[in-house]
């Protein structure tokens, strides 16, 4: 039985490929799990239209991320922190703090998109990477100053 894979499946292949499997495997596993559909003209047309829609949506999201990245490249944030003796920072500046600072500037960025290897624990100027899309990154400048 020929089946069109709707999802990537390790033992069979990538999404969109047509594979030959035993009919029992297709009826009892692939179809109920939503991994594949029977390969006929109707399903081929539906799958092609769905692929076009997904590609259009991804291109639109990428363009929006690129536009936002251009805006964010000029953004400079200032985080004020409490310091002790010898300018030792109490606590740290985390991705949540940076997301809050961005929100105050009018940019709604999820904290999980802000890439910090470790929380910032010292005064200074930092370049922070924000992953807006799988292919688009923006860099903002973060000034950590004492209160």
Describe the structure.
The protein is of the alpha+beta class. The chain folds into two domains: 2-64, Ribosomal protein L9, N-terminal domain (Ribosomal Protein L9, domain 1), CATH 3.40.5.10; 69-146, Ribosomal Protein L9, domain 2 (Roll). The chain is 37% helix and 27% strand. The chain has three helices and seven strands. It has helices spanning 23-33, 41-72, 95-105; strands spanning 2-5, 18-20, 36-38, 76-81, 114-115, 124-133, 136-146. A four-stranded mixed beta sheet has the order 4-7-6-5. A three-stranded antiparallel beta sheet has the order 2-1-3. The radius of gyration is 24 Å and the shape is elongated. It starts with a strand and ends with a strand.
Structure in a nutshell:
This protein has helices at about 25-35, 40-70, 95-105, and strands at about 1-5, 20, 35-40, 75-80, 115, 125-135, 135-145.
Notable characteristics:
Ribosomal Protein L9, domain 2, 3 helices, 2 domains, Ribosomal Protein L9, domain 1, alpha+beta, 147 residues
Low-confidence segments: none
Name the CATH superfamily assignment of the largest domain: Ribosomal protein L9, C-terminal domain
Task: Please state how the strands of the largest beta sheet are arranged side by side.
Answer: 4-7-6-5
Number of strands: 7
Number of domains: 2
Report the helical percentage.
25-40%
Rg computed from alpha carbons, rounded to a whole number of angstroms: 24 Å
Give me the oligomer status.
single chain
Using the coordinates above, name the CATH class of the largest domain.
Alpha Beta
Give the count of helical stretches.
3
- Would you list the SSEs in sequence order as H and E? EEHEHEHEEE
Mean pLDDT: 91
Largest sheet: 4 strands, mixed
- The name CATH uses for the topology of the largest domain is Ribosomal Protein L9, domain 2
Distance between the termini: 70 Å
Beta-strand portion reads: 25-35%
